[in-house]
Design brief:
By secondary structure, the protein is α/β, with parallel strands linked by helices. It has twelve helices and nine strands. Helix content is 49%, strand content 13%.
């Protein structure tokens, strides 16, 4: 079962008493070769789980850095299927690190839910985040994913009240992704004091680990969130390294992986006060 990787990783991290570090990277950004080099280098640099985005022309939840990453990925000829192919290539050398695919519903619908799920499973995908698929409309997708044991990972936000949380966590597995700030990625900063009670509330509602993303760019911020959450997600700070490398006409992988190491080391440097008891 593919979901076993996510569960096993969080169980191991609970035993270590620390949060997971989850870097986000974009498929095909800035090229297939560079994207694959980045992906292959992530575990050694400090990634516990990998969030792999697929380029889409209308990434509505993303701020400018990830929007630009999507444009670079599209320019490199990448989309949903080619991003999953990257994961399949990664799996040839790593069968332990969980990969969570992140993106939007339209390309998945175009491929067809069952066809998508079967291909994702064949490529070694463990989980899926679909930003624009509300729980009320997710039934067919959930059914397709359940057939191949891929986790559907839902988003909870600062505006998700207790009643909404009950709906959000239905059918969720692996972990819940808590969006720490209202708005798009890469703009505001996450506040650990504000995040802590929200994480506890989401965990109580779901019985699952809670990963916190949006608004985490620096090692210091990552360490602060790691103290109160089960996982820390960083995306914009990494795709900005790709952009800087492209602007300087330099290879992107060394810059991205160096930043992953800085952030991963920061997460590892602190003990989590809230590694989920239910893992």
């Amino acid at each position: 079962m593919t979901t076993a990787r996510i569960d096993a990783r969080f169980k191991a991290l609970k035993a270590e008493g620390r949060a997971a570090f989850i870097p986000y990277v974009m498929g095909g950004d800035p090229s297939r070769e560079e994207a694959l080099a980045i992906l292959k280098g992530l575990p050694a640099a400090g990634a516990d789980v990998i969030e792999l985005g697929f380029p889409f022309s209308d990434p509505m939840a993303e701020g400018p850095p990830i929007q630009r990453a999507a444009i670079r990925g599209l320019a490199a000829g990448f989309g949903l299927r080619s991003t999953m192919d990257l994961a399949k290539e990664f799996r040839k050398g790593d069968d332990a690190t969980p990969i969570v695919l992140m993106g939007y519903l339209n390309p998945i619908e175009s491929l067809g839910y069952d066809a998508f799920a079967a291909y994702a499973a064949d490529c070694g995908i463990d989980g899926l985040i679909v930003v624009d698929c509300p729980p009320e409309e997710a039934g067919p997708l959930v059914q397709a994913l359940d057939k191949v044991s891929i986790s559907l990972i839902r988003l909870a936000t600062p505006t998700s009240d207790d009643e909404r949380l009950k709906v959000v966590v239905q059918g969720t597995s692996g972990f819940v992704y808590y969006v720490a700030v209202a708005g798009v990625t890469g703009v505001k900063e996450a506040d650990a004091e504000v995040v802590a009670p929200a994480v506890a509330r989401v965990r109580a509602a779901s019985g699952l680990p809670v990963a916190v993303g949006f608004g985490i760019k620096t090692p210091e911020r990552a360490a602060a969130i790691a103290r109160v959450a089960d996982a820390v997600v960083v995306g914009s700070a990494l795709v900005e390294e790709v952009a800087a490398a492209v602007a300087a006409n330099e290879p992107a992988a060394p810059r991205v992986l160096a930043q992953v190491k800085r952030l991963g080391d920061a997460v590892r440097s602190v003990a989590s006060a809230s590694v989920a008891e239910t893992v």
